[in-house]
Amino acid sequence: MNRIDQTFQQLRRQKKKAFIAFISAGDPDLKTTYDLVLALEKAGADIIELGVPFSDPMADGPTIQASSMRALHKGASLKKILDLVKRLRLKTQISLCLMTYYNIIFHHGEKKFVQDAKACGVDGVIVPDLPAQEAKTLRKAAQIANLATIFFVAPTTSNKRIKPIAQASKGFIYYISLTGVTGARQSLPSTITADLKRIKKVTDKPVCVGFGVSTSLQVKAINRVADGVIVGSAIVRKIEENSSRNCLIENVAKYVKSLVTLCHCEGTK
Amino acid sequence: MKTQLPDKGGHFGPFGGCYAPETLMGLLLDLEKEFHKIRRDQKFRREFEFYLKEYAGRPTNLYLAKRLSAYLKTLKVYLKREDLLHTGAHKINNTLGQILVARRMGKTRIIAETGAGQHGVATATAAALFGLKCVIYMGSKDVRRQSLNVFRMKLLGAEVIPVESGSRTLKDAMNEAVRDWVTNVRDTFYIIGSVAGFHPYPVMVRTFQSVIGQEARRQFLSKEGRLPNYLVACVGGGSNAMGLFHAFYKDQSVKMIGVEAAGHGLHTHAHAATLMKGQVGVLHGSKSMLLQDKDGQVQMAHSVAAGLDYPGVGPEHAYYQKIGRAQYVAIDDKQAIAGLKLLARTEGIIPALETAHAIAYLEKLARRVRGKASVIVCLSGRGDKDMGQISQLI
């Protein structure tokens, strides 16, 4: 069984909702990413998404764009990030996903990517510019290797598309809370609840909500209807703000812990 | 060979497809449906043809360049005068077509990316014509080198947003336009300027631009009583080239040559010769050739011509190259400027810097042919926009 599936099983038993943290691997550097993953696990994150930077992140807002560029300037690459995961696996069994754009995977070779990712201890992969219908090769290879392929449902996704997306998704389904790019927002659309119901009608796979989430109120509201929440830009911004400080890890972990506490207790209601 | 490409998923052999964020997929599927409808719709065709003729100034002339031909000795050169169209380039063919589609789909806001500014001007023009709100994304480097076109777009009522990310050129303008589109997908129509991007854009833009080749083929046949030996056009994303080539696809005797930008030279990293030097990759929604590094990061392109300064290329060109239907060559910055001067002095026509690449290649082609050969060059745009830049270069 895939670690992600185990994570959700366990959370369900404990009547808890998942907290998924996204960070850009290699920002400010890979050593810090290593420490951050361990610190975020300690802070209670259930799944960690590692962003593999791409030169043209067209689904990302300014915060993650900037962090991707910093990571690239520092020399982060898929190979180095896979190596980082391999080293992390000596220390932690937390569920780890890679999030990257399709060209990075395609260029590496889809089958080789799946093999290498699995061998290094990656549990799932999220590709924002790869819809399920273009993902046949990747899905086939991933299924054999038991690497989870996580696909998106958006507010603009028709009911007809939800079913095949849900079928192609392993681990969980990523619901995009809003029409837009990644990045913290003050308020989120009210359509989330109705859309979650649309998805839940056709699948019993876990559905997690991301894009725009940054406040404890939003985490609370989302977890009333979803199986988990994904926070990215808000954490990346915290990392950016603290990048020249010695207490970077501590400050980021503190912030994540405050959100996790709320996320986990919300699920018990 | 019947041209049944792309397939239902937008694939041209191993290229093309639809690599889009899920938020856009619903709209792209709707757009595909609408596009298939209008292809068979006589009313749409009449409306499109009306604007091409009465507003844009079609058909454009196929002009025999006598003095240029005499200079080249072995070539009889015909120029397909897209530079004479309203707004000064072929881009208007496509923006008129797409804006009619946008209106049918009930979209009220138009966005576009632009490199040289020609597509931006053509989009702003079409938006003004139909009273639609228009936002143009343009790399800040291009805003500087094509300031005249920025002024034109603003005069036409468009908002021009300079893009500061990445290489600050066409590729980054396209990233930013996609980000806008993902955000405003419900009321916004994205008019992509080249035969690139998510399916159905490559086939839709080809359809609207293929009027170039259909006219040129008819005109050449009536003037010469046979088909030309060569077609030559510059290739950035590749819309004017595909517009010319497509009508000749089945005419096996007609050789097609796409001219890419060699920038500072193919031996340097500062060029935009995607088909010659790139590898297969995925950028901006389709699989095609792509300039990229060993990790799959997209490399910055370079060309003196902002409209060719793009590290990708339309998927159908990648397909034409793969099956050997077209040949792709490259002309560097200096040669392009020499080509511009050549056409100016022999024919009294100042081409755009992009188009000058195609003109410059004629000298190489002239040396290559045995005996005599006829050629149609797509004179995709006029050079007015480049005067500021060229006055500094010469």
Reported for the largest beta sheet of chain B, the result is: 6 strands, mixed
How would you name the oligomeric state of the polypeptide chains in this document? heterodimer
- What is the string of helix and strand elements of chain B? EEHHEHEHEHEHHEHEHHEHEHEEHEHHEH
What would CATH call the homologous superfamily of chain A? Aldolase class I
Strand arrangement, largest sheet of chain A?
A: 5-4-3-2-1-9-8-7-6
Beta-strand segment tally of chain A:
9
**H/E element string of chain A?**
HEHEHHEHHEHEEHEHEHEHH
Class per helix and strand makeup of chain B: alpha/beta
What is the end-to-end distance of chain B?
46 Å
Q: Greatest chain-chain interface?
A: A-B, 39 and 39 residues
Residue ranges of chain A: pLDDT <50 for 5 or more in a row?
none
Summarize the SSE layout with pairings:
The complex is a heterodimer of chains A (269) and B (394).
Chain A lengths: L2 H11 L4 E7 L5 H13 L4 E5 L10 H12 L4 H11 L6 E5 L2 H7 L1 H11 L3 E3 L9 H10 L2 E3 L1 E2 L5 H10 L4 E4 L15 H11 L4 E4 L5 H8 L4 E4 L1 H9 L6 H19 L3
Parallel strand pairs in A: 1-2, 1-9, 2-3, 3-4, 4-5, 6-7, 7-8, 8-9
Helix pairs in contact in A: 2-4, 2-12, 4-6, 6-7, 10-12, 11-12
Chain B lengths: L10 E2 L2 E2 L5 H19 L1 H15 L5 E3 L1 H7 L2 E6 L10 H14 L4 E6 L3 H12 L3 E7 H6 L1 H9 L3 E5 L6 H14 L4 E3 L10 H9 L1 H14 L5 E5 L4 H7 L9 E9 L10 H4 L1 E5 L2 E5 L24 H9 L2 E7 H15 L5 H16 L4 E6 L8 H7 L1
Parallel strand pairs in B: 4-14, 5-6, 5-8, 6-7, 9-10, 9-14, 10-13
Antiparallel strand pairs in B: 1-2, 3-4, 11-12
Helix pairs in contact in B: 2-4, 3-14, 4-5, 4-9, 5-7, 9-11, 10-11, 14-15
What's a concise summary of this model?
Chain A is an alpha/beta fold.
Structure, explained:
The complex is a heterodimer of chains A (269) and B (394). Chain A has helices spanning 3-13, 30-42, 62-73, 78-88, 102-108, 110-120, 136-145, 159-168, 192-202, 216-223, 233-241, 248-266; strands at residues 18-24, 47-51, 95-99, 124-126, 148-150, 152-153, 173-176, 207-210, 228-231. Chain A is α/β, with parallel strands linked by helices. Chain A has a single domain (3-267), classed as TIM Barrel, CATH 3.20.20.70. Chain A has a nine-stranded parallel sheet with strand order 5-4-3-2-1-9-8-7-6, with helices on both faces. In chain A, β1, α2 and β2 form a beta-alpha-beta unit. In chain A, α2 (30-42) crosses α4, α2 packs parallel to α12 (248-266) and α6 packs parallel to α7. The longest helix of chain A is centred in the last third of the chain and has 19 residues, at 248-266. The radius of gyration of chain A is 17 Å and the shape is globular. The termini of chain B are far apart. In chain B, strands 3-4-14-9-10-13 form a six-stranded mixed sheet, sandwiched between helices. Chain B has a four-stranded parallel sheet with strand order 7-6-5-8, with helices on both faces. Chain B contains 16 helices and 14 strands. Chain B is of the alpha/beta class and 394 residues long. The longest helix of chain B is centred in the first third of the chain and has 19 residues, at 22-40. In chain B, 62% of the residues are buried. Chain B has helices at 22-40, 42-56, 66-72, 91-104, 118-129, 140-145, 147-155, 170-183, 201-209, 211-224, 239-245, 274-277, 315-323, 333-347, 353-368, 387-393, and strands spanning 11-12, 15-16, 62-64, 75-80, 109-114, 133-139, 159-163, 188-190, 230-234, 255-263, 279-283, 286-290, 326-332, 373-378. Helix content of chain B is 45%, strand content 18%. At the A-B interface, α3, α5 and β6 of A face α1, α8 and β11 of B.
